[in-house]
Amino acid sequence: MAILYRRIVFLLFVFLLSSLFSVSVSLSFSPADEYLVNCGSDVDSTVDNRRFVADASSASKLKFFSSEGSVALQGEDLAPNVPEIYRTARIFARQAKYEFNVRDKGTHMDEFSSEFGSRVREFLVWVDAGEVVIRFVPSKDSKLAFVNAIEVISAPKDLIADVATSVSDDGTEKLNGLAKQAMEVVYRINVGGRKVTPFNDTLWRTWVPDDEFLKTGDGSDKTYFTGRIKYRAGGASREVGPDNVYNTARVARRSSGSVPQVDMSWDFPVSAGYKYLVRMHFCDIASKSLGMLYFNVYINGNLAYQDFDISYSAGYVLASPYYIDFVVDPSSASSITLSVGPSNKTIVDEHVVDAMLNGVEIMKMNNSMGSLDGFVSEDMILSSCPNRRNLSIFIAMMAFMCIFMSFYIVAQRKKVGDDYGWTKLSMDVRGDNLKSGNQFAARKP
After folding, report:
1. Which of 14, 193, 228, 262 has a CB 3.0–4.6 Å from the CB of 248, allowing a cystine?
2. Read out DSSP for 323-337?
3. Is-contact 300 333, C-beta < 8 A?
4. Do residues 240 and 331 lie in contact, with contact meaning Cβ atoms separated by under 8 Å?
């Protein structure tokens, strides 16, 4: 009997282990292109089970960067919990570049990490060439550029849709061509939930709580879901948003039988002069049944989506994630305000949720100059900040030309002197003038 019991326990253990393995395999994302670089280090490092390859290792056959005179710097007296990739950096005193060969045509995610509060700059760029080139140019003020780590990853095909809804004071319209726009991630928010770390995201992203951005939310509650998130074709995939974003939400509930007029609003400071892609994530984890939740979506006070039927959008499946992309131009405004609230179709029932939101992403889109930081182009920056090596060569050439011209001028003067000559004037001179050394000369005719 004891032997039979041990066999049953062993078989259950094997079944559980195989189930966990199959789940982990199904949840994993394997990008066609993935470069993780530990800048300024001569040893590889592992962060969140991800291996960052050293760019300063003499034994490494992978040469990513091209910069003569760059300096590899290692930090000292850092806290023990500082990740390895932030303990080293590569410093550039002039233009430098990292080059990565890519196989996959499409959107790629570029991330640059620097130890200023572990700041990560994330960009989404369309790549149709065979390589990604990342340049670092020292600014005129600092005279230096540096980076701790770089990630270049081919993004899932469904990460950026090509069509979105443009929202303005004049109404809404469809906007095409988004997939090939360069974007910078400004905000990634887990509404109603806790911080989501890269370890819990298949694309290794960080999602922060929404509390500091919530502007109005009287009567709103945070809700949590312990069941299984039902990803499906046509909706949001796990790469679009992880479980830990969709299993939490902030919901608006009425305190009486009447439909409330207040809505939930979030305010996000942004830089003027750019358009922004606003992605709002929805997953009905609060309704008791289908067809009960209708609400309106507003952006900067403009109606972006009227009578949003989340059941219809999610294929009539509860706890099935869905997202909507909007493009907004805040013009001279310094922030983007998002709001959700009851619609005319909202059902008057004390058990019905009036509005909800699970997550928000805001991405800055490149302007007409192809820039994500000011109205300057790449050519303008590179021409105004020439490579110091080229500058040194230019200065040496100018010095050589100056020396050459000096010899040339001296030679020409000597030649003129030989052709014309000089002689003293024949004239009477007083003795006192001779003593004083005054003499006169005249050029021969």
Report:
1. 193
2. EEEEEE--TT-SEEE
3. yes
4. no
CA dihedral 392, 395, 396, 400 (to 10 degrees): 170
SS3 of 393, please? helix
Return the structure tokens found at 155.
């993004």
Radius of gyration of the chain (CA): 34
Distance separating alpha carbons of residues 391 and 1, to the nearest angstrom: 85
345-404: pLDDT as tens digits: 887 777 788 899 999 999 999 998 888 887 766 666 666 554 544 444 443 444 444 444
Closest to 72 measured CA to CA, from 54, 51, 60? 54
Report the distance separating Cα 12 and Cα 22, nearest Å: 15
Dihedral sign computed on CA atoms, order 66, 67, 71, 75: negative
Average pLDDT, the chain: 79
Which of 178, 144, 174 minimizes the C-alpha distance to 161? 178
**Distance, CA of 310 to chain centre:** 30
Backbone angle region of 398, left / alpha / beta, with phi > 0 → left and psi within -120 to 50 → alpha: alpha
Pairwise CA distance, residues 343 & 354, whole Å: 8
The secondary element (H helix, E strand) that includes residue 125 is: strand 119-127
Sheet arrangement for strand 355-357: 220-224, 248-252, 355-357
Q: Residue 58: pLDDT band by 50, 70, 90 thresholds?
A: low
When pLDDT is averaged across residues 429-444 and rounded to a whole number, the result is: 36
Q: What is the rounded CA–CA span in Å between residue 360 and residue 282? A: 9
Structure tokens at 224: 């949590």
Q: Cα–Cα distance between 23 and 21 in angstroms, integer?
A: 5
Strand boundaries in 205-301, DSSP class E: 208-209, 214-216, 220-224, 248-252, 264-269, 276-282, 294-299
Give, in order, the Cα–Cα distances in Å from 382 to each of 107, 137, 263, 373. Answer: 25, 8, 48, 14
d(CA 8, CA 31): 39
Per residue in 199-237, pLDDT (tens digit) is 999 999 999 999 999 998 777 899 999 999 999 998 999
Handedness of CA 182, 184, 189, 195 (dihedral sign): positive
Helices marked H in 160-313: 243-246, 310-313
Contact 217, 262 (CB under 8 A): no
Strand partners of residue 364: 184, 276
